[in-house]
Specification:
By secondary structure, this protein is mainly alpha-helical. The protein has a domain of about 50 residues. Helices cover about 65% and strands about 5% of the residues. The protein is built from 24 helices and 3 strands. The chain starts with a helix and ends with a helix.
């Protein structure tokens, strides 16, 4: 068998015009086992691709490769696919036939063959199983049309692979279809969120889907009541929306606000959270969306929250009139209070808004006050977590008196040196190095202490 394979390769490499070589190979292949035929198929494919064959011998080699498509062993057909998959000049009809073979064979050429057209790849996606579709989804530089077909009809494993293929051209429509079909799948969400330049609107939808899935899970496990789980999920969605907006450009924030309004997510709680987190851009875009005014005019009014112009703008948005003082207080606080992070509510700003609402003493603000109290508790807990996460600053070395015996300082001063410990950043000062100090220096330290 090895001698037969060697004959094929050497004949091809020497460009010997020997038309009977392929026929000899085919006669031998009828008697060889599957492993031998697979090696011979690979050798014949390499000879076709890389040898200087004469026209007649090349034609016969192509016939031999075509006949191998009917070999009953997938081992042979897979060897043929592996030998031809990366070649630009592989016979098109052979590659197309291999692409329609069993997934063990087709996945090889679907993953990387440059011969197949987009239309052929779309057809292969329609007839392929999960393995074949997954191989197709991992192709480098996958076109939009093939990606759209996979997003529409691909099985779960293939769609997750498509979302994770950073070389694939995924349009917003493709991404949206993936979210629609598999937004509740944790692996699909993770793969999508790893993509750079994912539109802010889709990021917000993925955050909402994650919060919804967690809410259903904890409620199903009876860890929380359905009502409490829903509140936690809602707050997580709002926090995610504010965080996504803080990382987005003006155009994306506008699209995000429009999506939030259409989906019912543009709430008083979200707007107040945005302000108390220092995200004025989200608040301004929301006012522009609700009022229909240009964002440039909105920014001027928001910069003067105590003015009558802001009051008129607020009234045009349709937001509850009793909440106007709270939003004025929040905007004023932003001008005076430093905001820790874009995804973190400022406790100081929240306290100022609470104080402003309490001074009004209006029962219509009771619901908003309850919300603000929850924000205050959230901010306090985050401050505590940040405090615990930060390492304590290193303490500077300073003199630390050793325990003195009673009456020691009442003795007459002498020039005899004594040992005294020096404090270091170590918590155990007994391990600190010792230095010698005269008695008068110790007395001065003791008096200062």
């Amino acid at each position: 068998m090895n001698r037969m394979v060697s004959d094929i390769e050497q004949s091809a490499l020497r460009a010997v015009d020997e038309p009977t070589i392929v026929r000899r190979f085919l006669d031998w292949a009828q008697r060889a086992d599957a492993g031998g035929r697979a090696e011979a198929a690979s050798a014949l494919a390499r000879a076709y691709l890389y040898s200087q064959l004469g026209p007649e011998l090349r034609r016969e080699a192509a016939i031999g490769l075509t006949l191998l498509l009917d070999d009953p062993s997938t081992l042979v057909r897979r060897a043929l696919a592996e030998a031809l998959a990366g070649a630009h000049d592989a016979p098109h009809h052979i590659i197309l036939a291999l692409a329609g073979d069993q997934s063990e064979v087709s996945s090889v050429v679907l993953a990387r063959s440059p011969v197949l057209t987009d239309a052929e790849l779309v057809d292969c996606a329609a007839i392929g199983d999960a393995r074949a579709q997954t191989a197709l989804a991992r192709r480098p530089r996958l076109s939009v049309s093939v990606a759209a077909a996979l997003a529409e009809i691909g099985q779960r494993e293939a769609v997750i692979a498509l979302a994770g293929n950073l070389d694939a051209e995924l349009s917003q429509g493709v991404l949206r279809r993936i979210v629609e079909r598999f937004g509740e799948d944790a692996e699909a969400r993770e793969a999508l969120l790893m993509r750079p330049w994912l539109p802010s609107r889709l990021r917000c939808e993925l955050v909402a889907a994650t919060a919804k899935a967690l809410s259903h899970f904890v409620a199903a496990c009876d860890w929380l009541s359905p009502e409490r789980a829903e509140r936690i999920a809602r707050e997580a969605r709002e926090q995610g929306a504010v965080c996504v907006a803080s990382l987005s450009g003006a155009g994306e924030v506008r699209d995000l606000v429009r999506h939030l309004r259409e989906s019912g997510g543009l709430t008083i709680a979200l707007l107040m959270r945005a302000l108390l987190s220092g995200n004025r851009a989200l608040f301004e875009q929301a006012l522009a969306e609700l009022s229909g005014l240009a964002p440039a005019r909105i920014a001027g009014f928001v910069g003067e929250p105590r003015s009558s112009g802001f009051a008129a703008l607020y009234g045009k948005t349709g937001l509850p009139v009793p909440f106007l003082p709270a939003f004025r207080a929040a905007l004023s606080a932003l001008q005076e209070v430093a905001i820790p992070r874009a995804d973190q509510i400022s406790r100081a700003a929240t306290e100022r808004v609470i104080a402003a609402c309490e001074r009004i003493n209006c029962h219509e603000l009771d619901g908003l006050l309850s919300l603000l109290r929850r924000f205050e508790a959230e901010a306090a807990r985050q401050e505590a977590r940040d405090f615990a996460a930060d390492p304590p600053p290193a303490r500077p070395a300073q003199a630390l008196l050793v325990r003195l015996e009673a009456g020691f300082l009442d003795e007459e001063p002498t020039d005899a040196p004594l040992l005294i410990a020096v404090e270091t950043p170590s918590d155990d000062w007994t391990e600190a190095p010792l230095v010698e100090l005269p008695l008068d220096r110790i007395a001065a330290l003791a008096e200062a202490a």
